[in-house]
Design a protein that fits this description.
Elements: H1 3-17, H2 19-22, H3 35-38, E1 44-45, E2 55-59, E3 62-69, H4 70-73, E4 85-91, E5 96-103, H5 108-111, H6 117-120, H7 145-166, H8 183-200, H9 205-226, H10 233-240, H11 250-266, H12 269-274, H13 276-291, H14 307-322, H15 333-337, H16 344-357, H17 363-367, H18 370-379, E6 386-388, H19 397-401, E7 407-410, E8 415-418, H20 428-432, E9 438-440
Antiparallel strand pairs: 1-2, 2-3, 3-4, 4-5, 6-9, 7-8
Length: 443
């Protein structure tokens, strides 16, 4: 990797770690302008005070209720990327009069709708004694279940603390950890299992190909369209900043932890087997080959593969200096899997990625994907990456089959070597090898 890329990435990491110092935000304030909107019957409000912190709402000289910021009272209640700051108002009977989300670090593609009236209006009129549970007395938003749970849970807990302190209404808060069910974690584990099965499969090549297709469809349909589970640049940024979801979000930890561990040990296994967007691109490539007898363009190795590192740098530094998560919304994943393009850049990149895949294998993954750039840094010294054993006769069939130009012939040793930074462990080389000489493992 050229020295200037290393400097860019180091500067991006430094800027991200200095983000709390670069972006100065007041710890309180900004809520007052919404108090009247959320408590229209009140004529005035006190300053924030007391323990727990609150605003007192007045009608004339009489107290008619209280307003509070959830992060002041229950900062431990977290969404995917940290606490979700919400302002809520409640009358003296313990009935919510209005809710507004003020600030959050959730992925925009998932959570922008938690700020909209369609979700927040459900809280108006609810009593502090109500469950405030998504799927029970509140409707959530598809694809943003953790964020919805965090909003509902923080309002429920904060409202009950305030009502107990100032209204004399005591509601027991049931303890326990609510999970996300078994489907999502099981799906993540299944796709990783198929990836390992394909990685170590050494039997008939037609069976290898069947395993490959099962993997692609399971990833695309299961993780992509149904469960919306994938690694994005937003995931990388939040992970570095230690903005992680609660432990009950098991699928996130399985996906992120599995990706990090397998990348360190095997290389970019995630890119070749688990990433639903990569799976979609590969399926499109196969349809393109079927529709166009002419093989896809195979371009030689070039410095163009470094562009993805520049994209990663632009995204990370852009967020570090603005603290605006929408900057990280340029990836085309949400446009494809959620059918909700947040900006023109994401839609344009989706069309570019889909169109490019018809001409160049893994076009997005090789040249533009910031996640691929990040994982390639982890995979540089993976001990169990693909290698050629002593059966290799340097015929070059694997070099021709490799979609990412990760294979090359070592003239000194007369053996094929693999670049772990570009190899996505797709098994195209091992399926093409007539000697079965390509295996994962240490040298």
């Amino acid at each position: 990797m050229p020295w200037w890329i290393k400097i860019l990435l180091a500067s991006a990491l430094l800027a991200l770690l200095l983000n709390p110092l670069i972006i100065h935000k007041p710890s309180q304030g900004g809520e007052e302008v919404f108090l009247k909107e959320l408590f229209p019957n009140a004529t005035s409000f006190s300053s924030k005070r007391g323990d727990p912190l609150h605003y007192t709402a007045y009608k004339g000289s009489s107290s008619v209720g209280y307003c509070f910021v959830t992060t002041d009272i229950v900062p431990e209640e977290r969404g995917y990327a940290g606490p979700i700051k919400a302002l809520a108002c409640m009358d003296r009977k313990g009935v919510i009069t209005g809710v507004r989300v003020l600030e959050h670090k959730e992925t925009p593609a998932y959570a922008h709708k938690i700020e909209e009236p369609g979700f927040l209006d459900q809280f108006r009129g609810k009593n502090v004694r109500d469950p405030f549970v998504i799927g029970k007395d509140l409707d959530g938003i598809a694809r943003a279940s953790v964020s919805c749970d965090a909003v509902a849970g923080s309002i429920r807990k904060a409202a009950r603390i305030v009502s107990r302190a100032y209204l004399g209404i005591s509601v027991e808060e049931k303890r326990g950890i609510s999970g996300e069910g078994i489907l999502k974690p099981a799906a993540v584990l299944l796709v990783f299992f198929i990836a390992f099965l394909g990685l170590y499969w050494r039997k008939a090549r037609n069976l290898r190909q069947i395993v490959r297709w099962v993997s692609l469809f399971a990833s695309l349909v299961g993780l992509g369209f149904l469960l919306h589970s994938y690694i994005s640049i937003n995931t990388i940024v939040n992970l570095i900043l230690l903005h992680v979801p609660p432990l009950r979000t098991l699928s996130w930890y399985l996906l992120v932890g599995g990706t990090i561990i397998t990348t360190l040990l095997y290389g970019r296994l995630y890119c070749g087997w688990v990433c639903p967007f990569g799976a979609g691109l590969e399926i499109i490539e196969e349809f393109g080959k079927a529709a166009m007898p002419k093989p896809a363009t195979k371009i030689p190795k070039s410095r163009a593969v470094l562009v993805k590192f520049i994209v990663l740098w632009l995204g990370v530094t852009g967020f570090a200096f603005t603290d605006n998560l929408k900057i990280l919304g340029f990836e085309p994943f949400s446009s494809l899997f959620m059918l909700s393009p947040l900006n023109r850049a994401a839609l344009a990149l989706l069309l570019l990625a889909l169109g490019g895949s018809l001409l160049i294998p893994r076009f997005w993954c090789r040249f533009l994907c910031p996640v691929g750039a990040g994982l390639s840094l982890l995979s540089a010294w993976s001990p169990w990456r693909l290698r050629s054993n002593n059966l290799c006769d340097a015929c070059g069939d694997c070099i021709e089959a490799c979609p990412t130009n990760a294979c090359s012939l070592s003239s000194a040793k007369k053996i094929v070597t693999f670049d772990p930074k570009e190899c996505i462990q797709c098994n195209a080389c091992s399926r093409a090898c007539p000697c079965n000489a390509i295996v994962p493992g240490p040298s």
